[in-house]
């Protein structure tokens, strides 16, 4: 596996041709660029989403040229504060072109992987790495056919059970 971080990791999003699928399985994350916006959310302060602009620009540019960006968030219920924040931020990602879906962990039809990953063009898997404090530390990238098949099969098994953001919000508010 190849360790990529920073611009090298970001280039995977700019160079993929057909698809970028992300599965998120943690109940919270601790990335420096999110700490202040997350704090603002917790204290009820407004957010201009400037910290998210670079990502949204990448998604817009890629989806404009036909790349599908999909994200599956496997979540604990009741929701952690970070999940509630993610639900609030998701409309910006969706407007940029991402298809974001939610799957309560207890509803998963099969074992949920322990690691987050990105699957690019069904040919490359980038396992998200975190340091001992939970902060993002880049990705371990591989084109190993067995790992790509496993990542693809997990996506296929879980995606159909996941609920699109808008429906998930309606169902969550209704309960």
Keywords:
globular, eight-stranded mixed beta sheet, Endonuclease, Chain A, 8 strands, alpha+beta, 175 residues, 6 helices
Strand percent estimate: 25-35%
- Counting DSSP E segments of at least 2 residues, the number of strands comes to 8
The helicity comes to: 40-55%
Count of DSSP-assigned helices: 6
Gross CATH architecture: 2-Layer Sandwich
Morphology? globular
Instruction: Describe the sheet with the most strands.
Output: 8 strands, mixed
Provide the succession of SSEs.
EHEHHEHEEEEHEH
CATH class term: Alpha Beta
Count of domain modules: 1
CATH superfamily: Endonuclease Chain A
Task: List unreliable stretches of 5+ residues.
Answer: none
Structural class: alpha+beta
Strand order of the largest sheet: 1-7-6-5-2-3-4-8
Ends apart, CA distance between termini: 44 Å
Radius of gyration: 16 Å
CATH topology: Endonuclease, Chain A
Which whole number gives the mean pLDDT? 94
Can you characterise this structure?
With 175 residues, the protein is an alpha+beta fold. It has a single domain, classed as Endonuclease Chain A (Endonuclease, Chain A), CATH 3.30.870. The protein is 42% helix and 25% strand. The chain is built from six helices and eight strands; from the N terminus they run E-H-E-H-H-E-H-E-E-E-E-H-E-H. The chain has helices at 6-15, 32-42, 53-64, 81-96, 145-159, 165-174, and strands at 2-4, 19-24, 68-75, 98-104, 117-120, 124-130, 136-142, 163-164. Strands 1-7-6-5-2-3-4-8 form an eight-stranded mixed β-sheet, sandwiched between helices. Strand 6 (124-130) and strand 7 (136-142) form a beta hairpin. The longest helix has 16 residues, at 81-96. The protein starts with a strand and ends with a helix. It comes from Nocardia acididurans. Residues 8-169 form the DUF6879 domain. This is DUF6879 domain-containing protein. InterPro entries: DUF6879.
